Amino acid sequence: MAKALAEYAGYTYVDTGAMYRAVALYTLQHNLDEQQLVASLPKIHISFKRVADGQHVCLNGEDVEAQIRTLEVGNKASQVSPIREVRQFLVAQQQAMGEEKGIVMDGRDIGTVVFPKAELKLFLTATPEERANRRFKELQDKGENPVFEDVLRDVNDRDYRDTHRAESPLKQAEDAVVVDNTDMTKEEQIEHIRRIFDERLEI
Fold this sequence. Notes:
The protein is of the alpha/beta class. Helix content is 52%, strand content 15%.
């Protein structure tokens, strides 16, 4: 949805979750514990490159878009994301990206921590079962053979960790517009969010 809104508005899209996944991938590649990861942060360089179907994440110059979308990396990302030094490292980069404005940033702490004064905050939600179903189909489309129960467990585990972490927990900003898209089609979601965007920015 964030990507679709950015395209509609002509803004730059930034997937902050992908940044945490890139750090998680680096951690797995080098078999790092928490202390080693913190010490290695200056060696981690994350960038985005435009491709025909949108944009891909690069880790130290290598396109790792496919590698960071696995369940293993997603689970690891939720383990490294509560680390204070990791969040400070990435939040600083995200805030620098947003200095020019004209940006749609997708993530779990954007409206509360990264950009608490954003012009528009959208808090998208859906039932865990529906979110797991969407993720399940996404993995299938990529040629993987996921087990739905594993995907659902991963969704619930990540939600618990993200809402209970001490550093930048997942929560709804008081001034966010809540969009429950459980029963919406993709097209209905896009239209709904476009309408909110147009009304807020008086387009």
